[in-house]
Amino acid sequence: MLLNLEQRKTHKDIEVSIIYPDKNKTVEKLVSFINSLSIKIEGYTEDSIKQINATDIYYIESEDKIAVIYCENGYFRTKYRLYQISEKLTGLGFVQISKYCLININKLDKIMPLSNKRMEAILKNGKRVFITRKYLYDIKKVLQENLDEN
After folding, report:
1. Which of 149, 104, 141 lies closest to 123 in space, CA to CA?
2. What pLDDT does 61 receive?
3. CATH number, domain 41-149, options 1.20.272.10, 2.40.50.1020, 1.20.1600.10, 3.30.1320.10
4. Which residues contact 6 (CB under 8 A, 6 or more apart)?
5. Pairwise CA distance, residues 43 & 68, whole Å
6. What pLDDT does residue 144 have?
7. Residue 63: Cβ within 10 Å count
8. Which of 13, 32, 83, 142 has the smallest count of CB within 10 Å of its CB?
9. Alpha carbons 75 and 69: distance in angstroms, whole number
10. pTM of full prediction above 0.85
């Protein structure tokens, strides 16, 4: 893969061109990542409101019908429900791991087996979230797709 960067002072915005011989999963992943840079979700704390980039999200949990977005060093509440956020983040590397939790597969460090066929996802920031049996197939499928790309 070649990467060309060119600065043009006359340009008002960033322009990205992807030139490829055949459209494959690597191209699709690049397009998905580039698109994810423009996806933002509004989150708030007690004293502020922030637009959170999808790429900054580690995981999202539903607590009392309110989704809480967890980033590297903090968290934000949002007015959206988990299924609404899931729809917005479709195709951007987010996978549901339990009835109440989505994780960003790009922030996943490792998966550890637990008893009763449950597993624990350990994220790059050290946070641990449980993967329930019902969603185990989904995460295995996403991980296998990522292996097949490489």
Report:
1. 104
2. 96
3. 2.40.50.1020
4. none
5. 8
6. 79
7. 10
8. 13
9. 5
10. no
Place of tokens 């009835």: 99
Q: Which two tokens stand for residue 60?
A: 């999202």
28 is written with which tokens?
């699709």
pLDDT of residue 36: 77
Kindly indicate the confidence band of residue 70, based on its pLDDT and cuts at 50, 70 and 90.
very high
Residue of 46, 144, 145, 60 whose CA lies nearest to 98? 60
